[in-house]
Design goal:
Blueprint (H helix, E strand, L loop, with lengths): L2 H4 E4 L3 H5 L5 E6 L5 H12 L3 E9 L3 E4 L2 E4 L3 E8 L6 H4 L3
Antiparallel strand pairs: 1-2, 2-6, 3-6, 4-5
Length: 95
Amino acid sequence: MTAHEVLLRPVLSEKALMTVEDGKYAFYVHPKANRTQIKDAVEKVFDVNVVKINVSTVRGKIKTIGRHSGRQNKKKKAVVTLKEGQRIQELEGLT
């Protein structure tokens, strides 16, 4: 899996953007990616040093359209903590 296949997109919620000041960035990642693949991808794409990674699986929501209901796919979210003083410049404009 390449680095761009591992990192799908950044999480742009209010809670995730508040942690950017602490050097923590949240990404949706490929469901089969593990911690070492996520670390390698972030370090390769953004040229930073990763200190810590927290990974969680977000359950899919149940959506109803008329009488029919279905479930969205589950997502995997990774919160990446960077080395002290480092930033991801590409994501700084989002806060």
